[in-house]
Q: What sequence folds into this?
């Protein structure tokens, strides 16, 4: 049986030391899950790579998250989780949300947040840029011109917010202190007339888990112009966890 821990379960309340048991949000482990989690946790501590190939339904995502979150918190690291599709990104956010809810219900004072991010063309709200249907390189140039000319209201609104808040999480702490899917961040920005692309960029430094597609790491153009600039913003070491290569 694979059910969530109940609200009354406080068996891991206020732990001195975290382990995979602190983060695992379900009542029972599926077959082999605990053994694999322990192996990945040990390998991560020893700075070794792990390769997990298992059929659907094994619970690979929760295995990975439960195994590496203790180390990420202990060493103050960020986790970069790479997926193939947007729907996989959303699944990671859903599992992370279960962990976040479990920690809150179990009275464990650890906040797990995370953000799935997308490219400029998929997040931009500016009608001019969208109407041009450009490739990513061209979009970057047009976006830059729009910002320089102060012609993008979404970016100007965001900069105003950034001047008002010392931490942009405080624009909507009830949303950004928890795992957020790119889709939800875009909806929030449509409502508030803010640029989702730059908001996600500004929020990265405060996110424990960053979820994006492989191409952010493997495509040389994106790596040069996007991933590395994100990496500079993050200014922290990363644990990289690719899924379904
Ligand atoms: S600043 Fe944001 S909303 Fe404006 S053009 Fe660039 S990506 Fe689009």
A:
């Amino acid at each position: 049986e694979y059910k969530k821990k109940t609200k009354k379960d406080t068996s891991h309340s206020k732990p001195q030391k975290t382990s995979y048991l602190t983060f695992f949000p379900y009542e029972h482990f599926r077959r082999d899950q605990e053994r694999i989690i322990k192996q990945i946790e040990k390998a991560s501590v020893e700075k070794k790579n792990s390769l997990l190939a298992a059929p659907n339904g094994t619970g690979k995502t929760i295995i990975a998250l439960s195994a590496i979150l203790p180390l990420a918190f202990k060493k103050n690291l960020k986790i970069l989780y790479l997926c193939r599709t947007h729907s996989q990104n959303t699944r990671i956010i859903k599992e992370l949300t279960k962990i976040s809810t479990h920690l809150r219900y179990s009275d464990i004072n650890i906040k797990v947040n995370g953000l799935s991010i997308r490219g400029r063309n998929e997040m931009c709200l500016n009608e001019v840029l969208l109407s041009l249907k450009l490739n990513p390189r061209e979009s970057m140039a047009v976006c830059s011109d729009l910002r320089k000319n102060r012609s993008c209201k979404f970016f100007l609104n965001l900069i105003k917010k950034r001047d008002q808040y010392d931490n942009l999480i405080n624009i909507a702490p009830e949303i950004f202190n928890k795992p957020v899917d790119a889709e939800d961040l875009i909806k929030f920005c449509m409502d508030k007339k803010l640029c989702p692309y730059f908001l996600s960029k500004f929020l990265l430094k405060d996110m424990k888990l960053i979820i994006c597609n492989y191409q952010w790491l493997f495509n040389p153009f994106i790596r040069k112009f996007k991933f590395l600039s994100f990496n500079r913003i993050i200014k922290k070491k990363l644990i990289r966890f690719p899924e379904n290569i």
In short: Residues 20-242 form a domain with the Rossmann fold fold (CATH 3.40.50). Residues 120, 124-126, 129, 143, 146-147, 152, 154-155, 195, 197-198 surround iron/sulfur cluster (CB under 6 Å). DSSP finds 13 helices and five strands in the chain. The chain has a mean pLDDT of 85.
